[in-house]
Amino acid sequence: MTRFTRRTALALPIAIPAAASAQEWRPGQQARIVVPAAPGGTTDIMARLLGQFLQARWGTPVVVENRSGGGGTIGTMEVVRAAADGRHMLMGNIGPQAIGYSLFRNLQYRPDSLAPVANVIRGPNVLVVHPSVPARTVPEFVTWLKQQDGRASYGTSGLGQSPHLSGVWFNQLTGTRSEAVHFRGAGPLLIDLVAGNVQFAYDNLTTAIEHIRGGRLRPLGVTSADRSPQLPDLPALRETMPELAPYDVSTWFGLFVPAGVAPEIVRSINADVQALLGAPDTQARFAQMGGVPAPGSAADFAAFVRAETTKWGEVIRREGLQMDAT
After folding, report:
1. What are the coiled-coil residue ranges (predicted)?
2. DSSP string covering 240-273, please?
């Protein structure tokens, strides 16, 4: 099976439908997509795929800028403060665009600071362990965690991101303890995890899958309610123990612009994203990554983000979690 990497993702050709979108807005000059995470993770990969596509479609440069830190809040603020002209875009995700509103006390932005444009990809997280961890099943992993008595550490792609909250919820349901070590994105996390500097992670399947296929990390289960078509023999965590029956976490990555961007511009960019998602090579590429396209209108995406924000708000309040954005 071919291993999927960020380099091969960008090397693969992108098919652009010959028919132009009914919406004809174009930026007319350089545009940018801000990534609120370090290079190498799913947010970064999606931004670069979309940027490459839009640059060819628009005929103007589209640059990708990484602004990591603060669980995605630093990069988000970069776009919130930008001109509402359609040229400044954010490749957002579940952390800063849903979880963060309830988790952080001192956010400088609110849901209405951004306009949702289009969801791009969704998929589960996956519990992966360094080969030095002796567990090969989830019950064995829980037994090992209890033996470690809080000394085991798991890496996250950022404070308040879904890989962080996936670990918090897992510990609550199984009565285990572990230390979260926060990185500035999935790329740096995976480097340290493969090196054995942290022992496990609940990483996005889209970024962890190449290390799983390469045998560098051992998967124990996916966080979604159902198994992933990309790893059909790998159980969902909720299958493995009665305590985990309620466990269901999926992550997503989508495009936002500053509030105040004209509705016709939002519709036009959404139409361009739908063209990308409808291309057969995009669907094949996402399948390689362990994710699926998430098509829909801007209104669909806005309703989805509101529902996600409500869901995670309830989880966070139930767990009593509150922290300051850094």
Report:
1. none
2. H-GGGTT---EEEEEEEEETT--HHHHHHHHHHH
